[in-house]
Amino acid sequence: MKNLVCHIFLTDSVYTKKFMIFILKHFPKDEHIFFTVDPVLYSDVTNAHVRKVNPKNFLEAREMVKTLKSARKIILHSLFNANFFPVLFFNKSLLKRASWVIWGADAYYNIEKKITARSLKTKIKKYIKKVMLINIIRNLDSVGGLVKGDYEYVRDLFKTQAQYRYVFYPNPVTFDILDNLEKDDKENREWKRILVGNSASWRNEHVEILEYLSNIDANFEIICPLSYGDKDYAQNVIKVGQKLFGHRFKPLTDFLKPEEYSKILNSVDIAIFNHRQQEALGNVLALLYLGKKVYIRSETTPWEFFKEKGITIFDTNKLLDGSEDLFAPMNLDSKNKNREIIRDEFSEERCVKLWSALFEAGD
Description:
By secondary structure, the chain is an alpha/beta fold. The protein has 2 domains: 5-170 and 348-360, Glycogen Phosphorylase B (Rossmann fold); 175-345, Rossmann fold (3-Layer(aba) Sandwich). The chain has 15 helices and 13 strands. The longest helix has 19 residues, at 120-138. It is globular.
């Protein structure tokens, strides 16, 4: 098909489902095919051209490649799943029509600067993965994402000539959901609610923040989302949190619908993210839109992005070094300005325009 755009979800999440619904709403349905390792997640999405692919299954991989060869554009949604690397590596001609859309961590953790492993077999596997990944990225047409700093990191590390495309994913927690929330009566509370991190991943570095908070003499409780990621890591965070804070530590271990999760975001006063690379942007944007005081590390690429947009955000490093008061209020003008900028910058109309430009680029 001449106008076919093939999407490959190298991982699945609530964002991929929201994205699929978004594409089918705003673009011709017969021009988009979605390859996914878990089509059951999308069984309730009507009219979706969803195709199952296990990249380790030769027949399924071959059928996918056959379709990709007829596509005008190929979109790689993240590069988390290394099982796809051989398929892409041995079909380099396809990459000239392919765009990798960075999710965050996939730009930083897929390549090891120094390969360390106990066994020779493992070292060889890691080396092969590294070689394939480098070749894949160097042959791409473009690299897309919300934060240009992530692209620049990839460009410099991998020495790629791929062009940058500014795109973002529609947030499952939509503006309509956030606008319809009932006002949370925080003014009459004698305690604060603090959200820490966004997932059960070591990249959140929860323990450092929890230990910092344990030294603060104030009345607060902690909300800690741990519903997806490493279950063993989640249990360790829960153990530390309960030891330090008892009943004041409230982990979220079940997946929540966007409507329910938005209520939790609306109930918090402050959010602290301790990632050293770009992550949790969906949470951050929703929280800023709601007028929350949000902390991220100033060395991360989103810091410069937010500052360039005129968005007020706070530095996690200043909390940890004791130079900033966690509970200092954020002024109303900054809250309103954040909300206005985010609504304009991340509207559904703008999202459509940016993805349309990516689909048409190079034609």
